[in-house]
Amino acid sequence: MQKPAFDDIFMDLAVNLAKRSHCVKAQVGAVLTKDTRIISIGYNGPPAETHNCDVEFPVEGCERDSKGSCSLALHAEQNAILYAVKNGSSIEGSTIYVTLSPCIACARVIFTMKVAKVVYLNSYAEYKGIPKDEGVEFLKKFGVEVVRYKKD
């Protein structure tokens, strides 16, 4: 029996976590790992104990900000990183698996927190209809390994 690769396990988990999102526009999941161990998990949505968009705004979703993004949600990467740090986990040198490549804001957080590698499933640029993955380019420019996930 062939054992699944850790990349497959962690990305499968990120895909399943995305299903927990209360966002009606996009569901994104993230798994933060280090040395084949899970440090933290996250999915996009409003801060805990505030509200759930799929309940309060089930048809149109929450209000958009000036850039057309959700005005209320934390991104999956932010949730995973914030939870890890809040609980005292060291994330320097870690890998984050995410179902959507990081936006530029998340890329800055990932870089600042010294995450070493990002593995993503789908392109943020393709999802948003913009010309390039700014977050991916930023991370690569400053030495973070970024890989688009492809299941073997």
Automatic annotation (TrEMBL):
PROSITE patterns: CYT_DCMP_DEAMINASES_1, CYT_DCMP_DEAMINASES_2. Residues 5-145 form the CMP/dCMP-type deaminase domain. One of its GO terms (biological process) is pyrimidine nucleotide metabolic process. Keywords: Hydrolase, Metal-binding, Zinc. Its EC number is 3.5.4.12. The active site is at E77. Zn(2+) binds at H75, C103, C106. Its cofactor is Zn(2+). This is dCMP deaminase.
